[in-house]
Design brief:
Layout: H1 2-14, E1 27-31, E2 37-42, E3 48-55, H2 69-76, H3 88-95, E4 99-104, E5 109-116, H4 120-133, H5 138-157, H6 160-172, H7 186-190, H8 194-204, E6 210-216, H9 220-231, E7 254-258, E8 266-273, H10 282-296, H11 302-310, E9 314-321, E10 329-337, H12 345-361, H13 366-383, H14 387-399, H15 410-416, H16 419-429, E11 435-440
Helix pairs in contact: 2-8, 4-9, 10-13, 10-16, 12-16, 13-15
InterPro entries: Metalloenz_LuxS/M16, MPP/UQCRC_Complex, Pept_M16_N, Peptidase_M16_C
Organism: Pseudomonas endophytica
Domain Peptidase M16 C-terminal: 196-375
Length: 448
Amino acid sequence: MKSHFLVRWLIALCLPAPVYANTSPATHVFTLDSGLKVIVREDHRAPVVASQLWYKVGASYEQEGQTGLSHALEHMVFKGSSKLPQGEALKVLESLGVSANATTRPDATFYAQLQANNRLAVSLEILADQMNSSRWSETQLQTELKVIQQERRTTADSSLWSLINERLKTIAHVASTYKNPVLGWMHDIDRLNNLALMQWYQEWYAPNNALLVIVGDVTPDQVKALVTEQFGAIAARPLPTARHPIELERLGRRALQLRLPSPNAKLAMAFNVPSLKTAKDPQTAFGLLLLNELLTSSDSSPIKVRLMHEQGVLAGTFSHYDLLNRGDGLLRIWAEISPSRAETPEAVERLIWAQLNELKTTPVSAQTLERAKRRIITKRLYAHDQIEKQASEIGELESIGLPWSTLDAQAQALHALTTADIQRLASTYLTENRFSATYMSGPEKKND
């Protein structure tokens, strides 16, 4: 088994990028009269099906004072319905061997199931019931809010990196609702009430604001019959206006110092950049994806080579680009400063800037560029080995308003990018005007 995987991996590294520019597996799309869009992808390797119901609502839809509504609703929709009393939905799925999960993101909320193909009908019935008749009591809500408050304390408030990232977003997104934390601010969670939550449910959990993705051992005719039976009677509803996150054009440099006890100094940097949805052309977004890959994703990346391996200033570093957003996103760099070093976060920022500026003036080698392209291509290739990942990609693209097949052009786009493109993108987007930083100092160093 392992030898087969190794052979596939070696082949992936040796084949030229255009090899990956192939079409997706058999994928079918239909829409019910209610507006519910259904995307079915056939994958008959095993008698398993991934089903995901995506709603186009998440943290970026929330306005001031509303943060955490989408996430709280995700917690409540399975508390009861017209067909199943409190907590029974998840118990039914579990008894049938169905793995169920739910996730709230900035741009969407989705409910995912992984099951044997003969369990799909039950999962769809429960999802339809959830869409049409979820109900919960004030007592249930107050109990669940305590769970959410504890979730916030343990995953955000008690984690230094989570706090740094959360604060970074508040200054990086000056006008955009991407500054909203998915869990919500604690003061908004504290005052969340049943009326607001039920209104949020009634406004956004409608078939004409949803997408159903099914990937696995199914046929389109089989799925259409099941979906029509379970969802066909649910009527479309008027939807609120979905306000797209819009950022200011002239931002200027922004910085924030977090003074909290930390075993070592930390730095988070962000640049405001377009996403695949907002870029003037897809090549710009795929170029930013490649630029991000070059920054810290391998041990041969300049920042890692100079600042970790050669100078020992950093204990670790990581970067991420928001490719899939409804609005503009961020390209972020995180740096953990070695506990043995005395450099401040501000000093390390200057060292990182030197590496970024070198990217603008000195072309990366052709070999380095090709390796970075292949890493991106193979990541997606092997992610698609899992039907859940295929479904998630489809849902994420469609939920931000892009066609499900958009990333099929990624390999060809990456292949066309040159070292000059990387220099141009670095010069355009890695600038002071687009820059934000959050600093956290380590313990004061005592002189011997």
